[in-house]
Amino acid sequence: MNDSEQSFVSSILIAIERLRCLSQIDILTDWQMCLGSSNVDTDTSQWNRVSLNEKGQIAWERGQQEIWLAQQLVIPANLQDYPVTSLSCRLAFTWWAEVAQVFVDGELVQEGDLFDHSPRVLLMSAAVPGTSVDVRL
Q: From CA 25, how far away is CA 21, in angstroms rounded?
């Protein structure tokens, strides 16, 4: 690849990263976790903050162990100075589990297995800054 082509590729990669910053927030480390059976309505104040493995993933031991993840999301006013009011707000993630369920504000909104592992769950069809959304997996 010559210098001109390399410069072109670099400018495209910079533009992609800029667009990503305008549309995504990394919330991976903000999840609270509870091992074992629980309830979607359980108070999460005593749950532990997740630990990420060396690959930057939330992982747990094998063996049919149930895990609950919870997070209270607050819709920001903007992302990188770009207003989000009225835009759709989705949670995009990947699971590797025999069964997974996603609850938004206590309502089951998504359910799947190993073959449904990369959902984009609608949290709000029209974002309202400052609104709090309870998400549990």
A: 7
